[in-house]
């Protein structure tokens, strides 16, 4: 079986959720160095402590990164040096005038709120891919009502993935599209949202971040896949 031995893995958004699960999986797969990045230093410190508590081989480092700041992303890409894999799971939920998360996305009421999604989820990885250095050799399909903005981001990322796979080859570029996850994305509405959408999912449940992390680990360890989109959605697209 393939491992990540002697590899350096960077996880932007690695302090929680899918990103944290990917960081654990990378260490379990014998990655030599795992670098997690987030905008909140205290969350980074907490995540590093939790990762080290697993007593897995491999070095763990943390970096503060404002993924909304293109110059900061560029500086980060240069500072981390040559790496083997970059995973981007960071993504902001747009805020309303009271500072609360705007969910569902059909509630987005301004260009500024909508652009906030693209700033982190699209332009962040775009800038990072443009400036990163790699070691050599390495929802959009079925949008629900009211999810136009979310599906637009996904579709844009699919195009970006294929384009970067061509431009950066032989560096490999792949896209993982998570479905409904049982984490804290929906805040106090989590249980209600999971109950409502579980009936529309073939497996009748939300996914765990660790299950989604398996897809990220697969595309890192399989050296013969690039330019592909992998949907981790419990069979939602089949119904």
UniProtKB/TrEMBL annotation:
Q: Which Gene3D superfamilies match?
A: NAD(P)-binding Rossmann-like Domain
Native organism is Psilocybe cubensis (Psychedelic mushroom)
Q: Where do the coiled-coil regions begin and end? A: none
| Family that this chain belongs to | Belongs to the short-chain dehydrogenases/reductases (SDR) family.
InterPro entries found in the cross-reference section: NAD(P)-bd_dom_sf, SDR_DHRS6-like, SDR_fam, SDR_PhqE-like
- Stored Pfam families: SDR
User: Where is the chain membrane-spanning?
Assistant: 17-37
Protein name as it appears in the record: Uncharacterized protein
Q: Which GO terms describe its molecular function?
A: oxidoreductase activity
Entry keyword set: Membrane, NADP, Oxidoreductase, Transmembrane, Transmembrane helix
Q: Does the keyword Repeat apply?
A: no
């Amino acid at each position: 079986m393939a491992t990540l031995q002697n590899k350096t893995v960077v996880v932007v958004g690695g302090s929680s959720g899918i990103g944290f699960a990917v960081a654990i999986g990378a260490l379990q797969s014998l990655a030599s160095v795992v670098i997690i990045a987030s905008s909140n230093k205290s969350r980074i410190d907490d995540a590093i402590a939790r990762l080290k508590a697993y007593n897995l081989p491999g070095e763990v480092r943390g970096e503060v990164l404002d993924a909304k700041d293109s110059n900061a992303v560029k500086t980060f890409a240069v500072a981390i040096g040559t790496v083997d894999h970059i995973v981007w799971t960071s993504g902001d939920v747009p805020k309303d005038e009271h500072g609360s998360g705007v969910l569902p996305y059909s509630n987005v009421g301004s260009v500024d709120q909508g652009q906030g999604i693209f700033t982190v989820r699209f332009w962040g990885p775009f800038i990072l891919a443009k400036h990163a250095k790699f070691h050599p050799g390495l929802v959009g399909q079925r949008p629900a009502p009211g999810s136009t903005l979310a599906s637009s981001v996904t579709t844009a990322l699919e195009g970006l993935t294929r384009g970067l796979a061509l431009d950066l080859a032989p560096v490999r570029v792949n896209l993982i599209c998570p479905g409904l996850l049982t984490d804290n994305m929906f805040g106090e509405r989590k249980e209600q949202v999971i109950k409502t959408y579980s009936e529309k999912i073939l497996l009748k449940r939300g996914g765990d971040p660790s299950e989604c992390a398996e897809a990220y680990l697969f595309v890192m360890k399989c050296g013969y896949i690039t330019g592909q989109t992998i949907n981790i959605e419990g069979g939602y697209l089949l119904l």
